[in-house]
């Protein structure tokens, strides 16, 4: 019986750990599913006026509508799309009807359209508030002379353009012909792979249990 003790303990312990990891991933899947549903609800909610006091956590994805005009100042952020290839997001300084200066992500223009003139224009913008987390230690500094940015660094773009650190990502532009193709916020870029991870952990637990049974069978054969 002593020959069986360690393999049994090792097998049961390993299975227990792997099953626990699978259950944890199922819990994460449930949490992420609920989170994505909440985000989708906030994105699609009827727009409200832009609040004067904003919190990046509380007001993330808040649906808003502003009316005013662009000022001609902008930051061009490198990006790409599957349909049109490389290009830029046009982040414009926008003066609201109340006199506030905020940032509006008007959307995508192809690389060749970067230098097209975009003079001030009156418009209404419906979109969602965002504070993108796109800057890390590997992000190059922007080339300010060429107005070439590598990320939507809202605080720094706001400082350079003299606006509030508030970004509205447009999903609809009215009152003027859109100068860019809107790239509205959605949840397609937020992965929810936890169910797949759970299946992997449970599969590993099954393999572990099978290997343990084979080991016990071989031990049994040597002892008979």
Description:
- By secondary structure, the chain is α/β, with parallel strands linked by helices.
- Helix content is 36%, strand content 27%.
- The protein has three helices and six strands.
- The protein has a five-stranded mixed barrel.
- A hairpin with a 3-residue loop joins strand 2 (63-81) and strand 3 (85-96).
- Helix 1 packs antiparallel against helix 3 (194-223).
Give a short synopsis of this structure:
This protein has helices at residues 2-44, 154-161, 194-223, and strands at 48-49, 63-81, 85-96, 101-110, 122-130, 167-174. With 224 residues, it is an alpha/beta fold.
List the helices and strands and how they pair.
Blueprint: H1 2-44, E1 48-49, E2 63-81, E3 85-96, E4 101-110, E5 122-130, H2 154-161, E6 167-174, H3 194-223
Parallel strand pairs: 1-2, 4-6
Antiparallel strand pairs: 2-3, 2-5, 3-4, 5-6
Main beta sheet, described?
A: 5 strands, mixed, barrel
Q: In which order are the strands of the major sheet placed?
A: 2-3-4-6-5
CATH architecture of the largest domain: Beta Barrel
Helix/strand/pairing class, anyone?
A: alpha/beta
Order of helices and strands: HEEEEEHEH
Query: Helix coverage percent of residues?
Result: 25-40%
Number of separate structural domains: 2
Radius of gyration, in angstroms, nearest whole number: 26 Å
């Amino acid at each position: 019986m002593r020959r069986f003790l360690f393999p049994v303990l090792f097998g049961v312990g390993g299975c227990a750990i792997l099953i626990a990891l699978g259950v944890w991933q199922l819990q994460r899947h449930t949490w992420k599913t609920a989170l994505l549903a909440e985000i989708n609800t906030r994105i699609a909610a009827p727009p409200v006026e832009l609040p004067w006091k904003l919190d990046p956590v509380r007001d993330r994805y808040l649906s808003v509508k502003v009316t005013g005009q662009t000022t001609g100042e902008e930051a061009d952020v490198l990006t790409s799309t599957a349909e049109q290839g490389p290009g830029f997001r046009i982040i414009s300084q926008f003066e609201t009807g109340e006199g506030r200066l905020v940032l509006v992500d008007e959307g995508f223009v192809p690389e060749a359209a970067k230098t097209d003139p975009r003079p001030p224009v009156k418009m209404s913008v419906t979109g969602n508030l965002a504070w993108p987390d796109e800057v890390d230690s590997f992000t190059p500094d922007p080339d300010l002379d060429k107005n070439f940015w590598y990320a939507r660094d809202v605080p720094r773009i706001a400082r350079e353009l003299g606006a509030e650190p508030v970004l509205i990502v447009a999903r609809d532009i009215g009152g003027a012909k859109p100068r860019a193709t809107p790239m509205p916020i959605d949840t397609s870029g937020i992965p929810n792979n936890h169910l797949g991870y759970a299946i992997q952990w449970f599969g590993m637990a099954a393999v572990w249990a099978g290997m343990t049974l084979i080991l016990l069978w071989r031990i049994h054969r040597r002892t008979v």
